[in-house]
Amino acid sequence: MSRPDVVTFGGEGQPVLLLHALMGRASTWWPVAPWLTRYGRVVGLDARGHGKSPYRGGQWRTPDFVGDAAALVRELGAPAVVIGHSMGGLHGIALAAEHPDLVRALVVEDVGVDLRGRTVDDWRALFDAWPVPFPSLRHVREFFGPAGDYFSECVEERADGYHLVAGPHELFDIAAEWGERAYWDLVDRVRCPVLVIEAEHTIMPAGQQAEIAARVQGGGTHLLVEGAGHLVHESAPRVFQGAVEAFLSWALHEDV
């Protein structure tokens, strides 16, 4: 596609839509996309305030992100398999709830739907501890360790070094919504099959992801990945791939 905020990873047939986490961008899905092309045309969307999205400087809320994803699936012309990480998982749940005709199957990775009481102060403290700007991509990779490749996709070079592509103030504003409301009403309206992949070292409330899988109407499966951190597809890539492929083979009724 010619849109700057959409990354086309390859493949043909039904859409496979990838939704990234807060601070991320569509290109962070490159390690996962090659094997997903077996299941259709794989595309990733830069969320508002992230990557190459034309939407900047606004006070974006969940319905804004969901509307963008729904419009893209309609443009692609068929119900999609949707895979979302963290923030992208929440948006995938909302998309499946609000537009059930657009989502054929859903995978959510280390997602939270009830973070009431959390504030953006933790995010501010985290960002304040980062040595931004980073002098080089090598410094980005060294600072973030096992997640270095992921975060090297999330920065851009400026005159004084490397900065997050997504502006911190926009990130704080997006995250602030999550501390104000729960999204269980959306979970209860999801009618497609759902795979919930939870990291052992999750940053989400205990027990919540298993409950998501138990409450969706279309049938949910919960997998706890031992040893994995929040970026399950980076810290446990083989387990993540095996789980997603097994789920899609069942959910899509395909012998692959």
Task: Give the helices and strands, then pairings.
Layout: E1 6-10, E2 15-19, H1 33-36, E3 41-45, H2 62-76, E4 80-85, H3 87-98, E5 103-109, H4 121-129, H5 137-144, H6 148-152, E6 155-158, E7 161-164, H7 168-178, H8 184-187, E8 194-199, H9 208-215, E9 220-225, H10 232-235, H11 237-251
Parallel strand pairs: 2-3, 2-4, 4-5, 5-8, 8-9
Antiparallel strand pairs: 1-3, 6-7
Overview of the molecule:
The chain is of the alpha/beta class and 256 residues long. The chain is 37% helix and 19% strand. It is built from eleven helices and nine strands. The strands form two sheets. It has a seven-stranded mixed β-sheet with strand order 1-3-2-4-5-8-9, sandwiched between helices. Strands 6-7 form a two-stranded antiparallel sheet. Helix 3 (87-98) links the parallel strand 4 (80-85) and strand 5 (103-109). Helix 2 (62-76) crosses helix 3 (87-98). The longest helix has 15 residues, at 62-76. The two termini are 27 Å apart.
